[in-house]
Structures are given as structure tokens and as C-alpha cells.
User: Which sequence fits this backbone?
């Protein structure tokens, strides 16, 4: 959920696909964090643990030590997977930008002896996605899980047979999305308890690096970069931020030499530090 939050925060400001990202976002949250979620969904939604393990084994055996492309990985997945061609999965998650923005309704229909499931996709500048969602239903002390596949339409509906008085979207979904509407789970965003820096990525970095940070309350952020001698190398940010999770994105100057640098971030009168390694 944390890496999903960092990706979604970046996506609000700059939407781009994992495949062939803009040069300034070559190491961005979509490439790293959305990319991690895509592998997670491939494993949990499509392949399962054993087939996913086989894919990774064959991928290493076939391409270890060499150069690969996205299509090479897709071909290995299709070679291992016994079902349909899975290009559709990679088309929507890797080659195109964005993520589902959903309104989900799950309602018991005791007279019709079924559970009604409704999904609206609200995203713009993104495809309509095909994905599974897990429904939990039952009675007060007993519940079962069932999976339904949502088709890539603006509005979609389906039903699960059964006379169950309680039904809802299961609390955890292996799906990268944001939810809207009273019947959908809210995007998991909690106000941080303190000012903190997350792990910079990638680190070491070649030219661009992203550093996540969290604020317990609205603060003015001042971020500066120093070399190991304490000399100020660059002033990165000096502006206010709301409470919550954010990111600092830094593109190193072409004249900056390889080496270790120290990032100092100030919020109010508190300082946090991170060691960054530039390798050219």
C-alpha cells in the first residue's frame, strides 16, 4: 500500500507508461513502484505462485547475462502459462499509462437469490481495465470468498448466486487502483505520525533520483544537497507541502561528479538526512 501511494502521488502530477517513460522519469515511481505492483498482480491474479516461480526461473535461464526487452519477458510468460495469450494484461498495465479509478457496489439481493456487483470505471487519459475483484459474503460468523472478472467497460455488472445477507468487497485486493463511492474501499492513506524520509530510489543513481518523505502536518520543506566536504551543491526544494506522503525528484547536473552526496531536508525546525551515491 505504501508503494502504491507513492506511485499514485506521482501519477497525479505526471502520468506516463512504464514502457518507454519520459527521460526525466526513467527512475520514477511508475517504473519502480507501479512496475512492482504489475508483477504482484501477474502473480496473484493470473499465474499463481508455482507458475510465477517457473516464469522467473525460465526468464533467468534463457536471458541471464544478456539483453532483454519487455516482449522477451511477455513471451516467457506466454510459454509457461497454459491459457490465453496474456498480451492484454501487459498492454493495459505496462504499455499504457494510468490505473483504474473505481466505484464499486456490492449488494445482497435476497429476493433474487444472488449478490449484485456493480463497477464503474471513472479514469480519464487511461484505458478501461480488465481485472478480477474478490467478493466476501456470508453471515455474521461465517464468510466465503469469490472472484469475479470485471470487463473493460465504463459500467459493468455481474451477480453471484446465493442467499447471503452480508456481502462486501473483500478488504484486501491484489489490484492497483483508487476507489470512490461509499461502497468502495477508500485508498489506504493515513496521516503520518512524524516527519520522515523514505528510501531513495534508485540508489546508486545515474542522473535522476526520487526520495519519498512523509509529513505529520503541513510544513515548508527545504531540501539541499551537499558533497562530503559539506559544500552546498544544489538547492532542490523550498516550498510548502500538505500533511501526507510526497516525493522529492532530483535530476543531477551533467557537471556533477560521481561520488557520495548528502541530502538534507528541513521541515519546520527538524532535519532529516539521506546519503546518495551518484555513479556515471
Assistant:
Amino acid at each position: 500500500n505504501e508503494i502504491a501511494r507513492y506511485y499514485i502521488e506521482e501519477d497525479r502530477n505526471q502520468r506516463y507508461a512504464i514502457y518507454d517513460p519520459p527521460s526525466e522519469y526513467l527512475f520514477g515511481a511508475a517504473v519502480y513502484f507501479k512496475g512492482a505492483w504489475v508483477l504482484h498482480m501477474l502473480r496473484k491474479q493470473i499465474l499463481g505462485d508455482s507458475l510465477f516461480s517457473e516464469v522467473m526461473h525460465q526468464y533467468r535461464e534463457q536471458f541471464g547475462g544478456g539483453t532483454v526487452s519487455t516482449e522477451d519477458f511477455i513471451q516467457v510468460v506466454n510459454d509457461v502459462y497454459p491459457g490465453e495469450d496474456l498480451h492484454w494484461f501487459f498492454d493495459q498495465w505496462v504499455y499504457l499509462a494510468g490505473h483504474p479509478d473505481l466505484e464499486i457496489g456490492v449488494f445482497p439481493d435476497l429476493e433474487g437469490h444472488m449478490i449484485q456487483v456493480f463497477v464503474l470505471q471513472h479514469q480519464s487519459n487511461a484505458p478501461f481495465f480488465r481485472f478480477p475483484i474478490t467478493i466476501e459474503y456470508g453471515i455474521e460468523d461465517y464468510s466465503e470468498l469469490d472472484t469475479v472478472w470485471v470487463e473493460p467497460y465504463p459500467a459493468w455488472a455481474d451477480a453471484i448466486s446465493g442467499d447471503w445477507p452480508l456481502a462486501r468487497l473483500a478488504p484486501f485486493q491484489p489490484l492497483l487502483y483508487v476507489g470512490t463511492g461509499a461502497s468502495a474501499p477508500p485508498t489506504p492513506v493515513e496521516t503520518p505520525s512524524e516527519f520522515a524520509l523514505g528510501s531513495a530510489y534508485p540508489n546508486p543513481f545515474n542522473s535522476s533520483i526520487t526520495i519519498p518523505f512523509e509529513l505529520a502536518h503541513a510544513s515548508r520543506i527545504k531540501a539541499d544537497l551537499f558533497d562530503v566536504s559539506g559544500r552546498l551543491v544544489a538547492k532542490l526544494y523550498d516550498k510548502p507541502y500538505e500533511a501526507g506522503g510526497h516525493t522529492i525528484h532530483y535530476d543531477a547536473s551533467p557537471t556533477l561528479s560521481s561520488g557520495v552526496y548528502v541530502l538534507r531536508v528541513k521541515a519546520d525546525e527538524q532535519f532529516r538526512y539521506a546519503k546518495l551515491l551518484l555513479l556515471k
